[in-house]
Design goal:
mainly alpha, 16 helices, 0% strand, globular
Amino acid sequence: MRDLLFAAIVFGLLPVCFLRPWIGFLVWTWLSMMSPHRLLWGFALDMRWSLFVGCATLAGLLFTRDRKSVPWNTQLVLMAVLLAYFTFTSLFAWEPDAAWEKWSLVTKVIVMAILATMVIYGRDRIRWLLTVIALSVGYYGIKGGIWVIATGGVYSVQGPDAGFMTMANGIGIGLLMVVPIMLALMREHPHKWQRWGFGLAAGLSTLSIVFTYSRGALLGLAASASFMFMRSKRKLLIALAFAPVIFAGILWAPDKLFERAETIGTYEQDNSAMQRIHTWIVAWNIALDSPITGAGFEFDYTSDRDRWFRYGAPDIRQHMDLVQSAHSIYFQVLGQHGFVALGLWLFLMFSTLWKCKRLAKRTEGDPELEWIGNYASAIRISLIGYMVSGAFVSTAYFDLAWVYYSFTAILSRELPEHAGATQKLAMSEQGAPAQTAPAAQVARVPSQSVVGSAHGRKAGV
């Protein structure tokens, strides 16, 4: 029965996705990030629902007038260049079949992130997309947080059984990347129940991150929390508010959590940590041997185990007897695509952080534009957590990260458009010719949501 209901919902949404492609991107985001069909047990479990929605959305994108051109900026150009480079390195992959299958998945992630910028614009649509992202991933955080409270944290929080957020490491990073978005949405949603809801979701999701027992997620959470604390203007108030919570958590948390955290500092005694180090050595040596092409996507799926082990340290077989993934976003890109791709990819991440910082700075103190800086700061914090925790997990192609990269273009476009719309309104009220002014020179007058749709302020929602 649940499969039939789910199928009816998705198929019922297909005409909507075609007629209003921006809603199609919301549905596609929901399916790709939450993987709700993986919660079913019947025929719907293995059907490619994202393909149906993606085709309807792209078909609608061809015919709709409710779109804009892609706002190419540094980040979008780098995404396109990296996709082209991934295609090049796949020609030289150790395992061609596995490499091209992974290439297909990564291509869909990057292309959809770029095309979404054509129809996701205006304050309302941006908020809708971030809300869908927060709730799609946050579902597992809310459920996991309740589970932790009910069981005392004895069992680890798990994500869906397919996609980028499988197992504890994946869901830990996913939740780490949406908690700042939830906190940003607390400030943006107009109703009190919505703000309380996102606050509760953020709290339960943070609890879930801790009880994934993922060391990478714990380090990422520490980095994100430290960054938010240092940026806060109310450090003493936050410290006083959280001190009893932290104290109670220390008393209540099971010994298993502390034992897991202690292994971060004693990695030499932890075989799984040593295996990570050896996989990094393998990736590094492969890049030295093939600095331009690497070994291609999924080289750790090689059927020639001896070939993989030859790139390891002399004592590698003392710690592992099976081929493993890189266990790091940095060594994953390096081993699969070489030094050139790693340089481009690092430039993409750090330029995104810089762009988000600039957006927050430009909109600071402007009540009409602060929402842009609010979202930009949240994305920046999310990516900092991702970059820290990703040092220990192979999630370089996590779709949420690529969506965040593209958000720099979406948010940047809002600055001149918002400024232009506000300036025109101010000039028309004064009876003077409308001119476009920089955002810093915009008069403080009420603004109108720049949605650009013939369907009204909320575009038919």
